[in-house]
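F.,

This is the one I mentioned.
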């Protein structure tokens, strides 16, 4: 495992944040942390967030809008300071993620491990910490789409120099301009860096958390929309819609959905800094909602049938084991027969719930009902095994 660690990535994502944390503790011991430092951290967090969402994601990875070379250069520089890799590498990984979502070729699929904790850690940070690094194997599609840009090739070639300048020098300059002394410059370097570090993990949550929880209204895969993450992700949290319509410049398609990145792109278009904004027709969005709804109903039907078969098998098994008790001693028979009968009645009630679920499959609560029934059946099965062991029935 140690041999597979990508040490530059380890330094950027693990060692460097630890160093910043230690320096921040020392800073707070010498000087109290106040509004100035908090504002710097917020600037670092959201400045990095916007460069990733508006630049790396919606401009270069999905080409959801066009802009001029000056804006591209600005976004290329700021996004390098986010320390999430060169544009071409970032876009390449993201292209693979959309092409092979939830499959083995997906670079950060949470399905890589059966253990959900391991899957979460892999999709969040593990896939970056282990291996060569995506900049060494940029896919051909990305090179065809973006590789002709001399600016992107330049950013790839000199990425570490640009990243160091944007993450070390520029924050110090911002702090000096805001505070007017060297202490302020140091605070700029330190707290803008901490804000950027926090934002890195917010972005990584799109790969991890947003593929574990959230609503799935537009797309039946693991990607989910998590509304309460909007304040942290500024729109990247509408991940289910994005997987359904990746070329749309919006992730939050409804006017009321908090998506700062789409608003920035829209305002850019109003002042001539963006054009050709891709927008999915509403009729297509509604069609996908209906299609996904029907697909989910079919999946639930299959799950329902499987649970019904399991319930029938359990009732049959209980009946067999109850008959086998007749060959047991009088004490065991009296002690356990009542338990088996009670267990049989419990499973019969579960079958009634399954019948109820088959009627209510179109309702949102049906998925929770199926999960609850599956849990009860598993508990009943475990209870049968315990009773059988107690009665020593093979």
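My design for it:
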């Amino acid at each position: 495992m140690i041999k597979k660690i990508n040490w530059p990535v380890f330094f950027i994502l693990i060692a460097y944040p630890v160093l910043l944390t230690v320096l921040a503790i020392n800073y707070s011991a010498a000087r109290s942390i106040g509004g100035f430092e908090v504002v710097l951290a917020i600037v670092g967090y959201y400045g990095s967030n916007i460069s990733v969402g508006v630049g790396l994601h919606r401009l270069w990875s999905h080409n959801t809008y066009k802009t001029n070379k000056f804006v591209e250069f600005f976004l290329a520089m700021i996004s390098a300071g986010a320390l999430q890799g060169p544009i071409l590498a970032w876009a390449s990984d993201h292209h693979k993620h959309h092409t092979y979502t939830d499959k083995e070729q997906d670079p950060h699929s949470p399905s890589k491990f059966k253990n959900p904790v391991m899957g979460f850690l892999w999709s969040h940070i593990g896939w970056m910490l282990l291996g060569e690094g995506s900049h060494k194997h940029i896919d051909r599609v990305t090179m065809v789409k973006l590789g002709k840009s001399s600016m992107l090739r330049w950013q790839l070639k000199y990425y570490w120099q640009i990243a160091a300048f944007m993450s070390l020098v520029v924050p110090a300059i911002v702090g000096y301009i805001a505070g007017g002394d060297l202490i302020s410059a140091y605070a700029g370097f330190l707290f803008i860096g901490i804000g950027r570090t926090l934002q890195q993990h917010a972005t990584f949550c799109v790969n991890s958390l947003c593929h574990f929880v959230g609503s799935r209204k537009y797309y039946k895969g693991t990607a989910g929309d998590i509304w309460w993450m909007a304040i942290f992700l500024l729109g990247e949290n509408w991940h289910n819609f994005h997987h359904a319509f990746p070329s749309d410049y919006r992730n939050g398609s409804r006017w009321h959905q908090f998506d700062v990145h789409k608003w920035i792109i829209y305002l850019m278009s109003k002042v001539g800094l963006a054009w050709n904004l891709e927008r999915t027709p509403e009729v297509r969005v509604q069609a996908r909602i209906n299609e996904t709804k029907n697909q989910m109903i079919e999946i639930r039907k299959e799950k329902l049938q499987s649970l019904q078969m399991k319930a029938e098998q359990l009732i049959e098994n209980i009946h067999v084991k109850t008959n086998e008790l007749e060959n047991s001693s009088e004490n065991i028979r009296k002690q356990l027969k009542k338990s088996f009968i009670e267990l049989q009645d419990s499973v019969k009630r579960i079958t009634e719930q399954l019948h109820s679920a088959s009627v209510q499959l179109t309702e949102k609560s049906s998925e929770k009902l199926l999960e609850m029934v599956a849990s009860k059946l598993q508990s009943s099965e475990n209870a049968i095994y315990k009773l059988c062991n107690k009665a020593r029935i093979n």
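The chain has a mean pLDDT of 86.

Talk soon.
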